[in-house]
Amino acid sequence: xxxxxxxxxxxxxxxxxxxxxxxxxxxxxxxxxxxxxxxxxxxxxxxxxxxxxxxxxxxxxxxxxxxxxxxxxxxxxxxxxxxxxxxxxxxxxxxxxxxxxxxxxxxxxxxxxxxxxxxxxxxxxxxxxxxxxxxxxxxxxxxxxxxxxxxxxxxxxxxxxxxxxxxxxxxxxxxxxxxxxxxx
Length: 184
Hints:
CATH superfamily of the largest domain: lambda repressor-like DNA-binding domains
Shape: elongated
Number of strands: 0
Number of domains: 2
Order of helices and strands: HHHHHHH
Strand content: under 5%
């Protein structure tokens, strides 16, 4: 049996390949971060937007030449599409160049891409990157920190654990007003 015909355990013929899903998700994430529509990218690729949707959902596999073109359009190296691949998508990744078994697992085993899988987070990042002034970006970040720290926990609400902050100390209730004044 050749490698191409070798069945991979747990995956049926109709199931989407986890690698195709990962590559498509990375493409979608990058497209959204750049603020490009499916229609615009598909036109540049010379395909229908429905075909791009299938690529992004991992339903259809992206050929090498099409992946090269997509990387060019999205201004990323081809390796971008394969970064942070979850362990379940790479059954042969435990083997290094020598062919001997190495360490298994990756930095993100939960299947998310860069930890930013929802549209709201991607929109927030894209708009934040559009702010030209470093001082204004710092103010917006301070505002978000203050708002996150000031969130009252309602009964039955999931508690979000505190995490260490980098840079400045945490804000206070007056921190929101100060951040807004600096933006003006």
